[in-house]
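Thanks for the sequence, V.! I ran SMI1/KNR4 family protein right away. Repeating your input here for the record:
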Amino acid sequence: MTDTPPSVRAAWARIDAWLAVHAPRSFALLAPPADPADVERAQQETGLRFPQELLDSLACHDGSHGSPVLPGRPLLPAEGIIAVRRRAMDLLEWAEQQGWAEDDDGGEQTWHPMWVPFAEGDGDAEVIDLRTWETYGLVGTVHHDEGGLQDTWPSLGAYLTAIADALDQGGTVGVTAPYLTPDRALEWHVPAHVRPERALTPAPAGGRTP
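Predicted structure:
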């Protein structure tokens, strides 16, 4: 008997419900579901068949606007996936021409053709790894100045479920915890780095009121 993988749609339903009550400003930043035609175009343009978890996530929200809602970077819409991957592939091609495709220590490449980005900001991207059956579905962060994947999760469903758990039950996602700004926007910070002058309050878990 195998364990049922965490559901992307169920995790998004929990995140959405929490945001609607506690952080309406952040909830408003999430886009509506993606147009299936845009998703199909993104797959054709990238030459990749998206994993079901990414399809499910895009069916919930076609990216986000403005500040990140999740702990990492702003979510990409379907058209943003095309643009970010195209830029990354152009940089990879240039690096290969220069002999710089690997990091300075001779480790992993700074980008791989079988990574599909789902969030991006400041040159760093969060991707789903489609390389092999051993890494298929793995979620991680690609930093523009480092090789390989950092801060990995076994799947997008596991990552989103961890976020929903932190909101519903309290706790952290990796090293960051959820906080509310005075105007009820959600932000994620390392607790030791939270500055008093920001007047942030720990995000209320579950049904507690702000």
